[in-house]
Amino acid sequence: MRRFADLHLRFPKGGLKELGDMLSLASDLGYSLVAVSFSPSRMEEMKRAKALCSDLGLDLATRVDLEPKNPGGLLRNLRRLRRRFEVIAVRCLRKDVARQAAKDRRVDLLNFPTDPVRRERLRFDHPEAVLASGALSALELNASTILRARGSQRARLLATMRGEVEEARRMEVPLIFSSGAESPYGLRAPRDLASLLTLLDVEWEKALDTVSERPLSIVERNRERLREGFISPGVRVIRREGEE
Amino acid sequence: MKAKRRYRYVGFKVLSPTPLGGEEIREGVWRSITDLFGAYGLSKIGPKMIEYNEESSIGIIRCSHLHLPMLRASLASITSLRGNPTALFVLRVSGTLKALRTALKGLKNSLRTSSQGL
User: Fold this and answer.
1) End-to-end CA distance of chain A
2) CB–CB of A20/B116 below 8 Å?
3) A56–B contact, CB cutoff 8 A
4) Cβ contacts (< 8 Å) between B114 and chain A: which residues?
5) Range B10-19 average pLDDT
6) pLDDT tens, residue by residue, B89-100
7) How many whole angstroms separate alpha carbon A112 and alpha carbon A200?
């Protein structure tokens, strides 16, 4: 049976109570793992959210969204935060940041502007797809971006996103689809999310992968890397010299 | 000979801060379909509201079996009704109304959060 994951829940304005409602609803909707985006200064709230999730039988992955002003800023943030969070997403609001993020193996998700006009200019393009295919980063699309847009803006956005999906497919860059929810009303059931992705010409089975296998494998890979004794994939320290 | 039209019955639950009537839900769904797929899409999906229970906020819509993902996407893209934030979740899909009603009975307590009136 498929397990589902939503890798992008934003920390709600209503605080921990509202986050609790979101987590409870996510559990009811059939998700087995969710990632909540925390600010690095909110470590206490992160611990309490973990406790909430363990009561619900829901797996919580910690995520941070970086919004660097330049590639140097991105590198500094990655050095500081990579070992503290299970998922690192970069909001690519500049081309040079997008290129740096796409080629850096410490970045998990590439996120692009939600504004349709800005998105057209800063879209996930071929050079970024080439760089990302040689690294580990995946392209993340948010349902909230599609849901917020209206009328002709939505049509433009869907066209841009369809181009991004096609680029990712050509260069075999993994695609992740998340809700980007900021309240319980922004959440959608896993198969409902996948159905939104069919608007971007993604086949049904592949759309389901973007809300199940792909996000789960990213979290699994990072947890393995964050575990003590990790050297490289498949290699870890079992015992040190002189230890029993 | 004309092929028999096959349907899918979609059970859904509405999450909204204020109770909504069946007609409001129906209008919202139809509007969402025409926003996404136009009149042509609406004619292909062929939706029909079978029932809606205001107490449990659970309803059933019938659609053409070939266009189920289109209906699902339309339901998922509803974000507000009557000026209130709203979300629709598909609970179960079935080929027969009887099987769906049986399955939905077992899901009466599903989405506990929503029934607590967020």
Assistant:
1) 41
2) no
3) no
4) 25, 184
5) 94
6) 999 999 999 999
7) 16
Nearest Cα of chain B lies from the Cα of A118 at a distance, in angstroms, of 22
pLDDT tens figures, A11-66? 998 888 899 999 999 999 999 999 999 888 888 888 889 999 998 999 999 999 99
In a domain, A244, yes or no: no
Q: Give chain A positions within 8 Å (CB) of B77.
A: 146-147, 196
Whether A184 sits inside 8 A of B90 (CB atoms) is: no
In angstroms, rounded to a whole number, what is the distance separating the alpha carbons of residues B46 and B49? 10
Confirm whether A241 is domain-assigned: no
A193 touches chain B (CB under 8 A): yes
Across the strands, what pairs with B96?
A: none
Residue numbers of the domain that contains A102:
4-236
Which residues of B are less than 8 Å from A29 in CB distance?
Answer: 89, 111
* Total count of domains within chain A: 1
Measured distance CA(A129)–CA(A202) in Å, rounded: 17
CB-defined contacts A:B, below 8 A: 62
Q: What does pTM read for this prediction?
A: 0.89
What letter represents residue B66's amino acid? L
For B78, nearest residue in chain A (alpha carbons): A147
Q: What pLDDT is recorded for position B109?
A: 61
**In sequence order, what E strands does chain A have?**
4-10, 31-37, 59-66, 87-91, 109-111, 138-142, 175-178, 230-232, 235-236
Is residue A32 domain-resident? yes
**Would you call A189 and B89 a contact, using CB atoms and an 8 Å cutoff?**
yes
Average pLDDT over residues A110-134: 92
Q: Is residue A243 part of a domain?
A: no
pLDDT for residue A171 is more than 50: yes
* Residue count (chain B): 118
**What CATH number is attached to the domain comprising A40?**
3.20.20.140
pLDDT of the residue at B110: 62
- Please report the domains of chain B, with CATH numbers, ordered by start residue: 7-94 (3.30.70.3250)
A137 membership: H or E segment, kind and range: none
Residues 6+ apart with CB under 8 A from A76: A68
| A200 DSSP assignment | G
Q: What is the pLDDT of residues A63-72, one digit of tens each?
A: 999 999 999 9
